[in-house]
Amino acid sequence: MDHFSSNGVDIAYVDIGSGPPILLIHGFGSNHAVNWQATNWITTLTEAGRRVVAMDVRGHGESQKLYDPEMFRPALMAEDAANLLDHLAISRADVMGYSMGGRIAARLAIHHPDRVNALVIGGMGYNLVIGIGGEEEIVAALNAPSLDEVTGDAGRAYRKFAEQTRSDRGSLSACILGQREPIPAEDLATIRAPTLVAVGEKDKVAGSAKELAALIPGAEVLIIPNRDHMLATGDRTFKAGVLEFLAKHGLS
Q: Residue 86 sits in which domain range?
């Protein structure tokens, strides 16, 4: 991976392919390789003629690990995304984020509307506005001496995922506490980029896609059939829907 300094924080990224740029922002506890490479998103987009830029969010993957929740405020993570575009001299890009990455992408569209051409918010619905909750349980699970000592279903799921991705659990603990700040509905109403909200039909994490889309002017909704929060990520219906959306609204 390549690296750059975003206001003093080391951020890792890949820059693959040629054509109109799209920036990909992964979810909590994941990284670009798990969220976008292993699911064949990067291949799908490059074969569709796109330049793909995919970052490891601060605290994740090969980016710098941080242990203060204040370092994971959503506005700071959105600035990392904007700074990456600056670093690569990309004035405007399509942007897709999944779960926490959808939260970051939405903030990027709010705070830097000139940088976001078309926006895809995946794996995140109305809970973007009201919050998800359960952060303390997840922190306790991440910090437990072993998985055997974690009892709650949500905590066990996040602990297993953190171990599978070989993540720094201390950094993830700080991240989940820092990034949980909801986005006010009035801020979402300022988004002017064409927006697609894509959520799995069985997703119990995201909240309602339709309720979130109703807050963003002109937003479209894609319900990914028979998929939960994890399995929706690489679903072929999700990919087809995003490619169709980008064909209509994306950079060309």
A: 2-130+184-249
Cα distances (Å, whole numbers) of residue 223 to 7, 195, 208, 227, 239 = 37, 14, 10, 9, 12
Q: Which two tokens stand for residue 166?
A: 């070989």
> Beta strands of 111-234 (E only): which ranges?
116-122, 195-200, 220-224
CATH code of the domain covering residue 58? 3.40.50.1820
Crossing angle of the two packed helices 74-87 and 100-111, in degrees rounded to 10: 70
Give the CA radius of gyration of the chain: 17
Q: CA-CA distances (angstroms) from residue 190 to 80, 95, 103, 111, 194?
A: 21, 17, 15, 10, 12
Beta bridge partners, 3, equal 12
Single-letter residue type at 115: R
Residue 37 lies in a domain: yes
Running along the chain, 252 residues long, what does each successive block of 10 average in pLDDT? 98 98 97 98 98 98 97 96 98 98 98 98 97 87 92 88 92 92 96 98 96 98 97 97 98 92
Domain count for the chain, please give it: 1
Which pLDDT score, from 0 to 100, does residue 152 have?
84
